[in-house]
Amino acid sequence: MAARSAPSCHLRLEWVYGYRGHQCRNNLYYTAAKEIVYFVAGVGVVYSPREHRQKFYRGHSDDIISLALHPERVLVATGQVGKEPYICVWDSYTVQTISVLKDVHTHGIACLAFDLDGQRLVSVGLDSKNAVCVWDWKRGKMLSMAPGHTDRIFDISWDLYQPNKLVSCGVKHIKFWSLCGNALTPKRGVFGRTGDLQTILCLACARDELTYSGALNGDIYVWKGINLIRTIPGAHTAGIFSMNACEEGFATGGRDGCIRLWDLTFKPITVIDLRETDQGYKGLSVRSVCWRGDHILVGTQDSEIFEIVVHERNKPFLIMQGHCEGELWALAVHPTKPLAVTGSDDRSVRIWSLVDHALIARCNMEEPIRCAAVNVDGIHLALGMKDGSFTVLRVRDMTEVVHIKDRKEAIHELKYSPDGAYLAVGCNDSSVDIYGVAQRYKKVGECIGSLSFITHLDWSSDSRYVQTNDGNGKRHFYRMPGGKEVSSKEEIKGVHWASWTCVSGLEVNGIWPKYSNINDINSVDGNCIGQVLVTADDYGIVKLFRYPCLRKGAKFKKYIGHSAHVTNVRWSHDCQWVISIGGADHSVFQWKFIPERKLKDTLHIAPQESLVDSNSDDSDSDLSDVPELDSEIEQETQLTYRRQVYKEDLPQLKEQWKEKQKNATSKRRERAPGNSIRLHFVHGYRGYDCRSNLFYTQTGEIVYHVAAVGVIYNRQQNTQRFYMGHDDDILCLAIHPLKDYVATGQVGRDPSVHIWDTETVKPLSVLKGYHQYGVCAVDFSADGKRLASVGIDDNHTIVLWDWKKGEKLSVERGSKDKIFVVKMNPYMPDKLITAGIKHVKFWRRAGGGLIGRKGYIGTLGKNETMMCAVYGWTEEMAFSGTATGDVCIWRDVFLVKTVKAHDGPVFSMHALEKGFVTGGKDGIVALWDDSFERCLKTYAIKRAALAPGSKGLLLEDNPSIRAISLGYGHILVGTKNGEILEVDKSGPITLLVQGHMEGEVWGLATHPYLPICATVSDDKTLRIWDLSPSHCMLAVRKLKKGGRCCCFSPDGKALAVGLNDGSFLMANADTLEDLVSFHHRKDIISDIRFSPGSGKYVAVASHDSFIDIYNVMSSKRVGVCKGATSYITHIDWDVRGKLLQVNTGAKEQLFFEAPRGKKQTIPSVEVEKIGWASWTSVLGLCCEGIWPIIGEVTDVTASCLTSDKMVLATGDDLGFVKLFRYPTKGEFGKFKRYMAHSTHVTNVRWTYDDSMLVTLGGADMSLMVWTNEMEGYREKRPCDSEESDIDSEEDGGYDSDVTKENEISYTVKALSTNIRPMFGIKPHLQQKEPSIDERPPVSRAPPQPEKLQTNNVGKKKRPIEDLVLELVFGYRGRDCRNNVHYLNDGDDIVYHTASVGILHNVVTGTQSFYQEHNDDILCLTVNQHPKFNNIVATGQVIQQTCQLQLLLSTSGMQ
């Protein structure tokens, strides 16, 4: 049990040693508070030199590689690497996230820059096109994006003196950008002959369109506009990595280790050569420089930060140091002092003071260092090298004691024995050597049991044994000092180990996550005093476990900060700190250990800091000691909602089939029927897997959902209206605060959320594009302007929308486990809460992202599954209902207390003005006061309390309550069984709506002469429904088994029901009492039919592939029909009662003589001539056309023919109800299609007088009643929103011109088919301009030397005249329309041809041109609004897609 809960102690990041100088530049600045901001690994650091204190920003999940400071110098933007990298904008005072910008870049974010007023941010990606992106960072919205360059971009900056202008530079280019609307347009800098074309590393903008840039050769290039006007040669002797502009002028830093200061006109002020100063060294290279007043900050390639005071420029102050290039693996702690020792591939060994947070000693070795150890008295320091040698130094003065090389491969682990007598040295050649310390490190033993490289070793407390781990994950034991391997487990059993740093062994079993590689965990260190264990892994995570940690999958707390491999981790000598080191990020992290007793105090003082800081957010592993899930919740978590075919796939599938069918000859298809149907009433409510989806509207009607339909129910008139915009199961529903609009979310490949009006039942907004598979929860903000939605993808993505604009505001991964509910804070529209499986999380919006914090439970409870949540009377109070029946009360993110509310899960909760109402699995509605102190009243949902006006019968007492809502003096309750009840505050309960419970519904029969029908379902109930105005369930009977079919006898007195166990029964149609029952089959009874007339026989079809025929009067089986190769799906009698038509799952249409059951062969032409008493068959010539283009074997599940034999209704697996004209001969008949069921329509039946069609949804458990509207009736009333499309897309009948135009493909036309053979590439498709040097000289003279090559740019000679377009003949009419307009009161005509927009003056005949397009213009329109006079929009062809290029103003063609 111990290892199954996370330790209650905690780590807090206290200090980070290091600075990211390698592969980064311009990443070090002064903030407004004179603190220093920079980054290392995945952490943003704010360092206060005055207080020698660090604060940390830890919102990133991988290495940070870029940083920009807001002009007000408080906010910082940082960009990271990764598969889905993002940008965080954060506050340097509070180190809290302000905004997250995501979903645009890939690979990483190379550079960032704020504009002059700090409203916009530009970023450059590391993708193949080095995309440049401009953001409105506060809203998290991308404003514009363009490919940056084919090669790396190193720096980007806004022109602070010209709005909407930017400059970027990089490998062999500089580009000047202008932002117009949402288009970023670049112009390449022209180097001309003023300077060589070369890589530009950094830049700064100045007044008068001047730009200064630092080049790879150390020159500074000065640009005016896009032209290079002069160079400042030799500004540095090597590449200039950083340039910083400030009020005094400019500072530059380069690879030569120099800082140069320049005035505002770029005249030199002074040079500071860091290599020549006290702290300098050969090879020092400057990567970042920041000049503020008389202070200069310098960051170097080797992870140092210097601060220089200008008047003491020879005495730079070293603020920060860290390891540089190569991996960092070696870590040891001093046995008696607060010191840590690290050694790296940079060949340096460093000693750090954990109290002063400073480097106190450094020594450079000959070889890269891979491990370190300090002996017991702290005098000797042993270092294992990469070349197989090891060195021992004196700690006091870092002088060498001994250097020994006995091995050729790297030494990866060494440790002194607890008695100080021996040093064990583990090598990559799989041996461990033992050296005697007193004998000047003479080799005294060798351990050779391993078959792989040695990764870890530990000594026993008595120095008699050593245990090792190797690369194969094997554990070995050796006797000391000789090194003989111990094979007896008994000998090892009682050994006490002095340290525990091995990653395999019984004591550390629990540290291994499931499915992990044996080398994923790099380091472990056990703290016996605190009984905690710290681990370091390949994913950049430091974890705390209980120690010993015996059972796999133990719970832990996790801490992020390192970006990738954490190579080593150790407790300090007194267990006050944990030290961890990053392999590739070269950083050393010092964590403060906060034991359990102190944890309470720190929480009390600063919850913010202690929780966010350590990111013990999201800390626990998945396995847990929470009680087993409630059966209902368990069932619900298993639902996937995945479909094999989604509605979105249909058009594509149709196209594929049409391609295949092109050559097949098709008969003339019968037209669609004149009749139509309209949805009239739906029996059912979706409660079994949904919650809080039932509300009163503004007008007192009730809104809920079932299948793919939003239902508005008027309880006074007992009528329903429908929203039918969805095409698959609706899973969630929320109501607008004004109770006039509703949001519903559905299942789908790209599922949508619809916001619709309850009065007009028309959609107001449809939101798509960010969820997958389905939307399981939605909620409106208190002002009704925003909407939050949660998807059912693997990450349960949360999206925040501005729903009226259809705009995504923020998106974030929610949780790996299912989320049941999302609730927006009524006081703060930027805050929300999500609850689900072992999850309650408090979110706040930050730009384009959401920052989430797990609810902190502390000692008050366990991490439980939450089923519902609401906010309370202040913005920080929240309440959640758990799966165990408690209500949790939260303040901010802390659990304050829990109250027992129900037996079993609390599924629904509703906040009132003063108090709350809750509903649970126990079937009880409870009213509470506003602090959950007192339960004021409870209502039990019981049959005895049903009021006389109920529209049906309650099936069981205390049904599980899934939804609760209040209004109009009533409590509205939705149950798992599909019932909607209204509870009067004084007690009586009225049943308003009900449907079948969970389980598929297949059985349906309509009465022979009354408007009633019977249904039977897998929920083990048989029900009789009234289809006349009372629309209610008349009778219900529980069955021992579920059923799949039923049928009324011709006189309507008996009802036959086929059950799933192979039996069937006949019941009295009025009382539902048994008359007789039979059990001859083992498999499902799939169809049952009385013979016509007197109903003498009943035919019973089963999945055993037989039809049994019984004589009703004698109650005996009189015949068996054999010969079907698969299960039976449908049976029909002929009018004489002598012949049976049978359909099977193998698509066979068979005929049997009744009552004996002899098989008959009837030619298909004859079938039509036979008079059939009913037609429910889906096979045969008469209904060949009902199979859709994409029909599979069991695609059409049911059919039913009207009694006048005119209209055939069908139901299919995609949820469509279709009407065909009968007979439907020939393939792919035309139809009318209706969408209301979500997936399989399992059965359809016309009523006795054909006035209504009744349909059943298999999985949506709904019974839908449609009214049949005769031909001609439709004209009398406006067509309803749900009227289907009349599918006639194969009609053809185009005019020849239209056909021709329809077949034009602009991609081919514009971009690949040449009118005549041509060579070369269109200018706009060229990858990059060939540089001046690459162009072949066009001259008869011998080629000039390289430096003297001439070029017209910048010469004093008269330049070549430009060609000016004067007149264009032609107008594009062949494939365009509505593309010529009058402007300026008829004085001008605007139109287009080729890639030119033309303004033609009618009076003078002159033309002016808009020439910004680079390919054919295809469309043109004029803005008619008086405010936007003379604005024209044109759209062109382009390689990837056709796109709207831009707006143009005809006055001067801007």
Number of helix segments?
8
Strand portion:
35-45%
Shape annotation: globular
The helix-and-strand class reads mainly beta
Number of strands: 111
Average residue-wise pLDDT: 85
Low-confidence stretches: 602-626, 1274-1293, 1308-1318, 1328-1357, 1445-1452
In whole angstroms, the N-to-C terminal distance is 74 Å
As a percent range, the share of helical residues equals under 10%
Q: For the report, how would you describe the main beta sheet?
A: 8 strands, antiparallel
Q: Which value, in Å, is the CA radius of gyration?
A: 40 Å
Explain the overall architecture.
The relative contact order is 0.06. Mean pLDDT is 85; it is low at 602-626, 1274-1293, 1308-1318, 1328-1357 and 1445-1452. It is globular, with a radius of gyration of 40 Å. β78 and β79 form a beta hairpin. α2 packs across α3. It is mostly beta strands.
Supply database-style keywords.
1454 residues, mainly beta, 8-stranded antiparallel β-sheet, 4-stranded antiparallel β-sheet, 8 helices, disordered C terminus
Briefly summarize what is shown.
The chain is mainly β.
Helix and strand topology:
Layout: E1 10-17, E2 29-30, E3 36-40, E4 43-48, E5 53-57, E6 64-69, E7 75-80, E8 87-91, E9 97-101, E10 109-114, E11 120-125, E12 132-136, E13 141-146, E14 153-158, E15 165-170, E16 173-180, E17 183-188, E18 200-205, E19 210-215, E20 220-224, E21 227-232, E22 240-245, E23 250-254, E24 258-262, E25 268-273, E26 286-292, E27 295-300, E28 305-309, E29 317-320, E30 328-333, E31 339-344, E32 348-353, E33 358-364, E34 369-374, E35 380-385, E36 389-394, E37 400-405, E38 411-416, E39 422-427, E40 432-436, E41 442-447, E42 454-459, E43 465-470, E44 475-479, E45 484-485, H1 489-493, E46 521-527, E47 532-537, E48 541-546, E49 557-560, E50 566-571, E51 577-582, E52 588-594, H2 596-605, H3 607-614, H4 631-638, H5 650-661, E53 676-683, E54 695-696, E55 702-706, E56 709-714, E57 719-723, E58 730-735, E59 741-748, E60 753-757, E61 763-767, E62 773-780, E63 786-791, E64 798-802, E65 807-812, E66 819-824, E67 831-836, E68 839-846, E69 849-854, E70 866-871, E71 877-882, E72 886-891, E73 894-900, E74 906-912, E75 915-920, ...
Antiparallel strand pairs: 1-52, 2-3, 3-4, 4-5, 6-7, 7-8, 8-9, 10-11, 11-12, 12-13, 14-15, 15-16, 16-17, 18-19, 19-20, 20-21, 22-23, 23-24, 24-25, 26-27, 27-28, 28-29, 30-31, 31-32, 32-33, 34-35, 35-36, 36-37, 38-39, 39-40, 40-41, 42-43, 43-44, 44-45, 46-47, 47-48, 48-49, 50-51, 51-52, 53-104, ...
